[in-house]
Amino acid sequence: MNKLIEDFSQVRNFPAPPIWLCLLLLVLTCLLVYANNYQGEFIFDDFVAIVDNPGVHSLYPVAPLLKPPPNTPLSARPVATISFALNYAVGGLDVRGYHLVNNLIHLLAGLALFGLIRATLLLPRFSETHGSEANTYGLAVALLWLVHPLNSEAVDYLSCRTELLVGLFYLATMFFAAMAFKAEWPRNWMVAAVAVCALGMGSKEVMVSAPLLVVLYDRLFAAGSFGAALRQRRVFYLGLAATWLVVAFYQMDNPRGDSVLFNTPGLSVLDYFRTQLTVIVHYLRLCFWPNPLILDSQDWPIVREFSAALILPLLLLAGFGFAIVLGFLRRSWWSILGAWFFAILAPTSSFIPIVTEIVSERRMYLPLAALVVLVVFTFDYAWRWVVGHVYSGGMAVRIVPALVLIAIVTLFGSMTYARNLDYRTKVTIWGDTVAKRPGNSRAQENLGKALMEEGRYPESVVHLREALRLYPIFRPKKDMAEIYSSLGAALSNIGNFQDASAMHRQALALRPNDAMLYYHLGNTYLRANDMIKAAIAFRRSIDLAPDFSPAHGNLALILMQEGDEAGAEQHFQRLLELADLNVNSYLIYADFLIRQGRLAEAVSLYRLGISKGIMPEDLTGRLNLLFNTYPETVIFSR
Fold it and tell me: So where are the chain's domains?
């Protein structure tokens, strides 16, 4: 083999690219592939995590940032929460800023992967045979991983920043550890590894395997045995182990109790395990041919008994497991890739039922790196064999690997660029999902809601009815209330008030203490011009949620129409207290004051809104209209 490697090195006879050129190529390629995703909208969990999450709308107080509320995408993930808060502090809800940060985190993760491959090949075990081309190998692996379409969900779906961050910190931990193992003075590298490992623990729970992977890496590539590794770097491993305390602290109060359930009707632990056997094979296929890519595969078939269909997945995974153990015993370099793949997937793709997402392509963000490394080096060794035994000269030997790499990067990059377009709007991404998985209740529901936002109510009704029909038995029954309520809103918008109110009643039967459901029922009565029932519904909504500002606004409008000006003003004032940064609060209340002839107060209200910097063009326009319509207000305002 050494003779073969030596011959191949001589035949190639051109230098590896310098590190600055590798880094430049990685940066430019990543930014180019994701150059068209900046206009993508907030979708699905983005609203819970960002848009409707007051915890990230301010940097103070810090308590909601350090301890996010339970059962949200950011639960037990303070690092991601703080990153969204910084995004909001800089650009509010300008979606471009969030996409920029996601793109940059993905780029940094790719650079960390490049650094890890390069540092590994410069270790004494590999430096003689592969060290001279460490940059080339690192570039090939990082390029393929950065542009792979399977990673597009993690990058384009903004609330998946948790996946990006844990990927970055996991790779950075391994990179800093690798640098420490070959450094003469390793302390700073070790401190950096512990620091980023702790940040990863605060980003997503799958980081728990990182300290174990570092030990395994040390055993295979540096120290030679576990005993030697622990003797030589005892303090370092104690530091890495201490980062587990971060995960332990955030898991004490079961922050994801609504999604991790062991007693779900219709989805036992064994059902989940059997199903994950088929899911992992699906993931592996997507690594080699990433099509079709689907945002949500909630309707993935549950495997409720062992059957012949599971024989192939079991044999495949058992074979992988046996090969990994055998490779580990023989100190084969590739055994760490198998450990990497399964250790990272284990928390979500084994026995722990994640009822909200049985299949999720973004879970392959980190495991994909191991497969890319395996493919690159397998191709390299195969090509060395061809050169040594079949064809050992000519220009083709020098350029074929480069041409293959360019072709795959171009193909995958173009597929990723096209996939970004599916995330342009909620309608496009959920329409794409429904087209690929029409039996998916959640996709039908979200497409129906997205169509309703665009005013396409008849189409919305069709998809929301389908969402009800397809609703899976393992999802909580109470979650059907949102579909009933949305269907009621869509029906009311096409004038079918009788069916609409029936849908709202179905929703309230499932969640009788939900203020939002009463608010939607009130809106339906409002459209039907039934002011008495609308007022009752809005009052009930306010009883359940006294700070729910939309209900205060609508109730105030009804009271104003009924002539109860004192009651209306009370709710208008409350609306302004609750939503004083919303231009509509000022406009509605000022209109009420103008109707009462209280022009000076209306002028003061407009000026107050302008002083707060709330959409000054709207308020200024209304103020000028007021001056033109009632010239005497100019005198009042002086």
Answer: 2-419, 580-638
